[in-house]
Specification:
702 residues; alpha+beta; 3 domains; 35 strands
Length: 702
């Protein structure tokens, strides 16, 4: 038998013949690192068909880049002799080649449409073509396929049943009609319906108000609807479902009581939906769900076209049969849903919906969501995700196979599914809630007063798992005092004011009380207690709490919420230092006690990040809550800290190798009584010595 030729450059694109896996973070994927010059010489020698196919595709892509650069009068030469290629071989998937130049990186994907077209090179796996323009005619068959697979094969999902209809739904009518109706349901009326997640945008969209309610019930012409609403109606009709729930139409927008009652039902509305449609790429109602596809290079923000796939076929009969396509890899959508990279700079361009706070709970609560991303369709359900190009086909949440980067994702969808499981302990549910809050607080919201209502649906679901716990303005009584240890973490470049409104809708000790003017809520995080651990001080006791909801939604806007805590309390002095005199100078907010000064994390700050609402040199009070353990090397270099990974957490009980840190609330006295308002969080890494002989005080936080 004649020995098989093995190419010394590409190893026949066979993972079993490759050298060691590189990088080691990839589990079922091999990465070959090759110089383009070597690949080109191999192709020119004619020894290796795989090298030839890769060269043809890469050089053709370079020609298109050259043409684009000429039209834009820019230099965009990416492929040169010294270019480094990273060839990613993942079994059962398309092949990807990453071009890594200085300051620039782009990825080309090679794939076939069937096994018969890959020739003798199975590394060119099967993928779906993605058209440059999405039409409903190509959308419906794929969505129907995903729905069928999800209902029949996904144990975590199952067949979506009929359920009680929401108070109001849009009756989409027949396919050939140009009118829809707002339908007010009767008690216990059941049926199947879909929901819509969308950005309202700055332009006025159609709504239901007390004055237009009867008109909406009498009928609304499709021409009156925004493009997003019209497309949602088309999809609902195409899937054979009669009803569609849209917030702006199904909640009476100028009726406060109706809004409160319906927002309290939000969890059930999305949980019972057959399918949630997410206009993920649209920043307003005028952009719709269908339309031109596009992508964005993540490193230099170059706009890329989608749908320009080109085929490579044999140049003569000696090469046998193959038909390999190549295209720009559609990786941005994958990154947005698997968290394989930091995508903050692309999310506003390609998927603005994902940056909105209201949509956070809609994604988690919905059993199935279809995302209309700028690049491609994405399917998200309780079992995993799939995509139109098929790279993420049946990617399972927490799958032990696949990319380690994808497994490291804080998979909130999987976490939410677990929260409702009786196998999950209360402690695990509370840990999950801290993850939810940290993620949620990074999202955008137009009105501060909505910070708790926009999370109320998720809170109502978690409440069913914590029947003995009271919900207190975004915190659970069962998790006190740990839940008080949030801190505001701001990016360095964020020079916006952080403040509390006169009526923030939450007490000062809740993360929901902090706000700023640019829609980006200050980033409240529980990162420290999650990485360093939390051991409540034995002298700290939650004495009582008083909660009087101000609305019909017990998980929404707060009324009067007071918290009484008995714990060690010391009086200290606040002062602010500016290390530089220029406008961008570093500011340190510190508290001083008996000659020892420690930085604090303030809740509110001015444009230079100085603590506000209190004068320099004023008296403050530090209430000890808990302790944490850390090594000698970790406490050096005071707060703010570099977070430890979970793996690095020190779990040993041997005090000889550890120091004991302390968490404390920094408080401002409100009146002559024992009433205080929170100013910030103090993380004292040198231990709890400040409070060693401190008096135990009973304080009331408002």
């Amino acid at each position: 038998m004649e020995p098989v030729f093995v190419c010394p450059v590409c190893f026949n694109l066979d993972p079993d013949r490759c050298p060691e896996r590189s990088p080691p973070c990839l589990l079922d994927e091999h990465r070959l690192n090759v110089a383009f010059s070597e690949l080109k010489r191999s192709a020119e020698r004619g020894d290796c068909l795989a090298c030839k196919i890769l060269c043809v595709g890469l050089e053709s892509m370079q020609e298109s880049w050259d043409d684009g650069a000429e039209s834009e009068n820019e230099d965009q030469i990416l492929l040169v002799e010294t270019s480094r290629l990273h060839i990613d071989l993942r079994r059962g998937h398309s092949l990807r080649v990453v071009l890594d130049n200085v300051g620039y990186e782009t990825t080309i994907e090679f794939y076939t449409l069937s096994k018969d077209d890959c020739g003798l090179i199975p590394a060119f796996g099967i993928a779906r073509p993605v058209s440059s323009q999405l039409e409903i005619s190509e959308c419906l068959p794929l969505v129907t396929e995903w729905m069928k697979e999800c209902s029949e094969k996904h144990h975590s999902c199952g067949q979506p049943p009929e359920s009680n209809l929401p108070t109001r739904v849009v009756d989409v009518g027949q396919i050939d009609t140009d009118i829809v109706y707002l339908h007010e349901t009767k008690d216990s009326e059941t049926g199947c319906y879909m929901t819509l997640s969308h950005c309202w945008g700055k332009e006025q969209i159609i709504t239901t108000t007390t004055s237009t309610l009867q008109d909406r019930k009498a009928g609304v012409k499709l021409s009156q609807l925004s493009k997003t609403f019209r497309h949602a109606v088309e999809i609902t009709r195409g899937l054979g479902i009669r009803y569609l729930w849209i917030d702006s139409l199904c909640i009476i927008q100028d009726d406060r009581l109706d809004w409160e009652v319906e927002s309290a039902k939000m969890a059930q509305v999305y949980m019972s939906s057959q399918l949630n449609l997410a206009a993920t790429h649209s920043s307003s109602g005028k952009e719709g769900c269908f339309g031109e596809r596009w992508s964005l290079d993540t490193l230099n923000q170059t706009e890329l076209n989608v749908g320009e796939d080109v085929a490579i076929e044999p140049s003569d009969e000696t090469e046998g049969h193959y038909k390999i396509f190549y295209r720009h890899a559609l990786h941005v959508a994958h990154d947005h849903f698997t968290r394989a990279m930091d995508y903050a700079h692309t999310i506003e361009d390609l998927s603005p919906l994902l940056s909105r706070a209201w949509v956070f709970q809609e994604r988690l609560l919905s059993p199935r969501t279809l995302h209309f991303h700028a690049e491609e369709l994405i399917w998200e359900c309780a079992s995993g995700i799939s995509c139109e190009c098929s790279r993420l086909q049946n990617h399972k949440w927490g799958d032990p196979d696949g990319l380690l980067e994808q497994r490291k994702v804080d998979q909130l969808k999987m976490m939410y599914s677990s929260v409702t499981s009786p196998e999950m302990t209360d402690a695990q549910v509370l840990d999950a809630w801290l993850e939810f809050v940290t993620e949620y607080c990074a999202l955008k919201l137009t009105k501060q007063i909505d910070r708790l209502p926009a999370l109320s649906g998720l809170a109502s679901r978690v409440a069913k798992r914590l029947p003995s716990s009271e919900y207190l303005a975004g915190l659970w009584s069962q998790d006190l005092p740990r839940a008080l240890c949030w801190q505001i973490q701001r990016p360095y470049e964020n020079r916006h004011l952080g403040f509390r409104d006169a009526n923030p809708g939450a007490p000062s000790w809740s993360w929901a009380s902090i706000w700023n003017h640019n829609q980006e809520a200050p980033y409240a995080t529980y990162g420290l207690v999650q990485t360093r651990g939390f051991v409540a001080d034995s002298r700290c006791r939650i004495q009582s709490f008083h909660n009087s909801p101000s609305t019909a939604n017990p998980f929404g806007i707060c009324g009067t919420v007071r918290l009484s805590i008995q714990a060690p309390l010391i009086e200290a002095t606040l002062f602010v230092t500016e290390e530089d005199t220029n406008e961008e100078g570093n500011v340190r907010n510190l508290v001083s006690f008996k000659g020892d000064s420690v930085p604090i994390s303030p809740d509110c700050w001015d444009i230079k990040q100085r603590i506000t609402n209190i004068s320099n040199g004023a008296a403050v009070f530090c209430l000890l809550l808990a302790h944490f353990k850390l090594s000698d090397r970790d406490w050096m270099g005071q707060y703010p800290s570099q977070h430890l990974t979970r793996k690095e957490k020190l779990e040993s009980e041997e005090s000889s190798s550890q120091l004991l840190g302390a968490y404390a609330l920094v408080l401002q006295k409100v009146d002559d009584g024992p009433t205080y308002r929170r100013l910030g969080l103090l993380v004292h890494r040198k231990g709890g010595g400040w409070w060693e002989n401190a008096p135990i005080a009973l304080v009331t936080l408002i």
